[in-house]
UniProtKB/TrEMBL annotation:
Keywords: Exocytosis, Transport. Belongs to the SEC15 family. This is Exocyst complex component. One of its GO terms (biological process) is Golgi to plasma membrane transport. Residues 56-225 form the Exocyst complex component EXOC6/Sec15 N-terminal domain. The gene is EXOC6. The keyword Plastid does not apply. It comes from Eublepharis macularius (Leopard gecko). It comes from the Eukaryota.
Length: 824
């Protein structure tokens, strides 16, 4: 049993291996998988596995060979029978072939004539079909050729818009039918060239149009401004007629029926307009706008309208800049301004026409933008050039042109408020030119005036004067002719010129669309400028002129007084013009009162100055012998001449206006002030003469002679050269000199030194420094005189005592002066 067990195991092992090989062979025969894994299972670790597999494979091959051999033996008899039958049919096939060939030959011979006739029929039908095709194609092409010929004709006669329509028909309708033909391709290639040619030609026409409107813009603007001005005049006249009451405006017509006069006036104007309707020209009459329409339509058809619009706007912007550029000498004449405004109006009238007759070429936003740009440039140009104008008439004409210019463009829908604002600036410039012009007029009037009262010999001459100037004087009216009016000839002339200035200023305020209150305010402000600046300056310059003497200054004071009184009449004059009451809250007042008061004060001051200058001229004629031992016994000649001059001068002041208490008080005050000023200046000049540093010594004889002159001055002051002084007020002007001279004449030094500083001092007005300066000069003079008279005079006891006294007084005076400097 133990011996058989291994054999059984080996048997099972061998059987398993055979199964494995069978499986491998089955996979090789029937599967398409990769054989690497399958063959790998054969080559395992068992010895002789390859050899055994090959043996198994050979056995499998032998089995298949036996099966193939069996199959062939089974079908061999059938194959042999089929070959035998095929050999029998071969002979019959040969016979059939011979018969078919013979039949075919006989059939070919019989069909040759039929074939020939058939080919002729086929050829004829082909020709017939070709002819039909050609006719059809020609009928298809002829409209295209005719339309293309029509296109050429339209190009020749410059009907470009129709030509473009024809091109569209060719492209959209005709060419698609004949696009396969060469001539169609040539036409198709020519159409873009024709379109470009049309664009170039239409653009050339547009350039000619732009050049044309550039040349005619000033004429267009001139006509538009004239029409606007005529319309404004017509509306103003119509409004004036409508303001009349119905009862006072009835008119009897030709049929005997009353009708309102304003309706009659309106009918007359309408009839006149109808008569002249054919004569009214517009922008369309002067310029042919068809190139614009044609070019716009052409570019629209070509789907290139945007290019045309951009080009047109660009070119018009360039033209606008050229139009807005003024000539350098435009400000010299009104024609320069008129041409400038006409060109601008013509430009915008054309743009407005284009805006309303075309669709989309320009827009309102575009014209508004262009106008705003132009308006800024216009304002800058006018502001610059108007500043060069020095003629008020030219500025006024410029204002009228600006108003017509603004009204014209406003009628076309352009905002012009900034232009009216500019007019207020130009109004200031106009007022400046008026002020300069009137300054010349005032200067001429002042130069021509004789500065003497106006003589009137009869009632007629008197009425002529008071018709020019509002003068009223009841006292003078009572006097008999001939008589004199207190003012000089310049007063009524100045008054007339002020009224003329108001009229001239009013002219600028017309047509500015301002209320009466604003016009009243403008008139009053400009008149105030005339009075407070121009007239005031002319008066001040007149007063300062060297050839104006005291008599002329007195007359100027009189003139300014009457001009001051006339200011209320000027206010009434403005009120009558504007119908604005002076009681209105916002009504300005004229400042003439202050102007003439200032001029009068300046004249008074000039009187004082000229008097003092004249006194200085007389003082310069003084020729004192400061070393004389004895006085001449009479006053100096220069001083007597000076006093006589002062007496005659103060008599002039009696001509100052005194027709009422105020004027009497004023004239007295001026005369008194002038007299006091002259005396004070004379006293000061005489004091300075004594204290002159160049004068080193003075004798007592010269002091006595000087005292005689001062006495004459005091006599003049006490003679009341000008009435109105109280007591010895005028003599007080010489009190300093009098006390100083008395001190030296009496030689009362003990009293002076003892009472110095006391309110009741006899020499209260004598200053120690003044006394010291004069005493030193007298002391030196006495020394020199003693030396000349006697060389031994210094040994005389009296002289020595006097010199010691003088030296003592000098030391005491110096002490007083030093005390004053330490305790000011």
């Amino acid at each position: 049993m133990e011996t058989n067990t291994p054999n059984v195991a080996g048997f099972y092992a061998e059987e398993n291996k055979d199964n494995i090989y069978e499986t491998v062979l089955g996979e090789i025969k029937y599967l398409e998988l990769p054989l690497g894994i399958t063959l790998g299972s054969v080559y395992d670790d068992q010895p002789n596995a390859h050899q055994k597999f090959m043996e198994k494979l050979d056995a499998c091959i032998r089995n298949h060979d036996r099966e193939i051999e069996k199959m062939c033996n089974f079908h061999h008899q059938g194959f042999v029978d089929a070959i035998t039958e095929l050999l029998k049919v071969r002979a019959d096939a040969e016979k059939l072939k011979v018969q078919v060939t013979d039949t075919n030959r006989r059939l070919q011979d019989a069909g040759k004539e039929v074939i020939a006739q058939t080919e002729e029929i086929i050829q004829c039908r082909l020709q017939q079909r070709n002819i039909t095709t050609v006719v059809e194609k020609l009928q298809m092409c002829l409209p295209v050729l005719e339309m293309y010929s029509k296109l050429k004709e339209q190009m020749n006669v410059k009907r470009y818009y129709s030509a473009l329509k024809t091109m569209d028909q060719l492209e959209n309708i005709c060419f698609p039918r004949v696009s396969q033909y060469r001539f169609c391709q040539i036409m198709i290639e020519n159409l873009p060239k024709l379109r470009e040619e049309i664009k170039e030609i239409s653009m050339s026409d547009l350039k000619d149009f732009l050049e044309s409107i550039r040349k005619h813009s000033d004429k267009i603007g001139e006509i538009a401004m004239k029409q606007a001005q005529q319309q404004k005049i017509f509306n103003a006249a119509l409004q004036k007629q409508n303001n009349l009451s119905y009862g006072r405006s009835m008119y009897i017509s030709n049929d005997g029926l009353p009708e309102p006069r304003n309706e009659m006036f309106l009918k007359q104007n309408l009839e006149e307009e109808e008569e002249h309707e054919d004569e009214v020209l517009t922008a369309h009459d002067l310029v042919d706008f068809s190139p614009v329409y044609r070019c716009l339509h052409i570019y629209s058809v070509l789907s290139d309208a945007e290019t045309f619009e951009n080009y047109y706007r660009k070119q018009r912007r360039k033209q606008a800049r050229l139009v807005l550029q003024p000539q350098s000498n435009m400000h010299e004449t009104v024609e320069g301004y008129r041409r400038y405004f006409s060109q601008i109006v013509g430009f915008f009238v054309v743009e407005d026409h284009i805006l309303h007759v075309t669709q989309g070429l320009i827009t309102r936003a575009y014209t508004d933008e262009l106008w705003n740009m132009a308006l800024s440039k216009i304002i800058a140009v006018l502001r610059t050039h108007s500043s060069y104008c020095t003629d008020p008439d030219l500025v006024l004409e410029l204002k009228n042109l600006i108003v017509v210019f603004a009204d014209t463009l406003q009628g076309y829908g352009f905002p012009v408020n900034r232009l009216f604002d500019l007019l207020f600036e130009i109004r200031d410039q106009y007022n400046e030119t008026l002020l300069k012009k009137w300054a010349v007029l005032f200067r001429d009037i002042f130069e021509a005036d004789n500065y003497s009262p106006i003589p009137v010999s009869n009632e007629e001459e008197y009425k002529i004067v008071i018709s020019k100037f509002p003068f009223q004087d009841p006292e003078l009216d009572k006097q008999c002719f001939p008589k004199k009016l207190p003012m000089s000839q310049s007063v009524p002339q100045i008054y007339i010129q002020v009224k003329e200035f108001i009229y001239a200023s009013l002219k600028f305020s017309e047509s500015l669309h301002r209320s009466s209150t604003e016009i009243d305010d403008m008139l009053r402000k400009s008149t105030n400028l005339l009075l407070t600046r121009t007239l005031s300056s002319c008066l001040q310059n007149l007063i300062k002129k060297p050839h104006i003497g005291l008599t002329e200054l007195v007359q100027i004071i009189i003139n300014t007084t009457h001009l001051e009184q006339a200011c209320k009449y000027l206010e009434d004059f403005i009120t009558n013009i504007t119908n604005i009451s002076q009681e209105t809250v916002h009504t300005a007042r004229l400042y003439g009162l202050s102007t003439f008061k200032d001029a009068r004060h300046a004249a008074e001051g000039e009187i004082y100055t000229k008097l003092n200058q004249k006194i200085d001229e007389f003082i310069q004629l003084a020729d004192y012998d400061w070393t004389m031992t004895e006085p001449d016994g009479r006053a100096s000649g220069y001083l007597m001449d000076l006093i006589n001059f002062l007496r005659s001068t103060f008599q002039v002041f009696t001509h100052l206006p005194n027709n009422n208490n105020d004027h009497a008080a004023m004239s007295g005050k001026v005369a008194q002030t002038a007299c006091m000023s002259a005396c004070q200046h004379l006293s000061t000049s005489l004091m300075q003469m004594l204290l002159d540093n160049d004068l080193k010594q003075i004798s007592m004889g010269a002091i006595q002679q000087f005292n005689l002159d001062v006495i004459q001055c005091e006599l003049f002051a006490s003679s009341e050269p000008v009435p109105g002084f109280q007591g010895e007020t005028l003599q007080l002007a010489f009190i300093d000199l009098r006390q100083l001279l008395d001190l030296f004449m009496v030689w009362d030094w003990s009293t002076y030194l003892a009472d110095y500083g006391q309110p009741s001092s006899k020499y209260l007005r004598v200053n120690p420094s003044t006394a010291l300066a004069l005493l030193e000069k007298v002391h030196k003079g006495m020394k020199d005189l003693s030396k000349k008279n006697n060389i031994f005079a210094q040994f005389r006891k009296n002289d020595r005592d006097k010199q010691k006294l003088i030296e003592t007084v000098v030391r005491q005076l110096r002490g007083l002066v030093n005390g004053m400097s330490q305790h000011p």
